[in-house]
User: Fold DUF3084 domain-containing protein from Pelosinus baikalensis.
Amino acid sequence: MYGFTLIAVLAITGGAIAYIGDKLGTKVGKKKLSIFGLRPKHTSIIVTIITGILITGSTIGVLSLVSKDVRTALFGMEALAQKLSTLSQEVASKNVELDTSRVALESKNAEYAALTLKVKDTAERLRAISSELTAVIAQRDRTALELEQAKGDLETSKQALTTLQETKNQLDLRVQLLNQSKVTLEKDVDRLNQLTTKLGEGIQVVREGSIIYRAGEILSTFTLPGGKSKADTELALKEAIYTTNQGIIEKLGIENKNLGVLWIAQEDFDKIVTTLVNHPEDVIVRISAGGNTVYGEPVVGQIGIFPNRLIYAREETIYMSIIEGGSKAAHPEQSVMTFLQKVNASAVEKGILPDPIQGTVGAINGADFYDAVNKVKRYSGKVMITATAKNDIYTAGPLKIELHVQEVSK
Assistant:
């Protein structure tokens, strides 16, 4: 109904202006009036043109006043297009996050299934050992009873007494070992049950939350001395783990600074300590996430050690290449970026430890990058680009470089 009313208003307004214009033009023609010294015929034409302009202007004006969509189409189309582009980018970003969470959920489901099978197997072993323990205790009691009976006739049963005593001692030792195994298995069952509960909670968090650490992500890097005593080595490694734990607490914003959020297996800890004690030189110790970790569950860490040696001396050439410069360089930014990728590959091959997630060994700031790109553009013909070390670079990195661009002699 609103549209028909608007059309009627526009038709009436246009018809009125056309009618007035026609009458005015007729009147001007009959009276032979003149505007700006023009002939009456030309004056009549000008009146007709002005009438058409008024019809068009009034039509647009009325539409703009009564319709927000018309105002948007006339004056807000660019802003609407920008908003549409921004929303499209946000949708793409959310899709990427959804895919990441879906992969994490599948991983957690697989881990949960494996842990459930392990709990079941451990529980079965515990039942078997409990049954064996019961049988051994019964046999021990029978043997003790026989021993007491044999003591009544010591002269005639001395040999049997000795044999029964040895049997009793063996059975006592077996009972002790089985009790220890039972306690150990009970602890394993409790730990696995707790881990299963945590994993179930972690799966729920994966469905609702986001990953804070990805599998293999570096948590911290330290340089520790080798060849020290076991006590000194354990102390140094514990300090490194404590520092890493505090860093995780700071990142997550946890108020309890004494909370142990980083879990390192005792077996891994002892193995690294033994390696450090037997290694005569300093080594690089990396602590990384053993798996994808979501908020609310502990970070299971892995410890890796690497030899710490000098890879590049200061101002040493790392990599050089000849590329097209000046007007022949169709995409200078891409050429410099390809060169940097080759520098990264060369440094990794030489022995610098890359980031396990991104595979990079360093970064270059934007100013240095675009300075090199502008030099490539400025020179004509072929140019040689060289990457040199800013300072002494060791195995742990990071790789800090300087780029040198010079024109190749023709």
Summary: The chain has a mean pLDDT of 77.
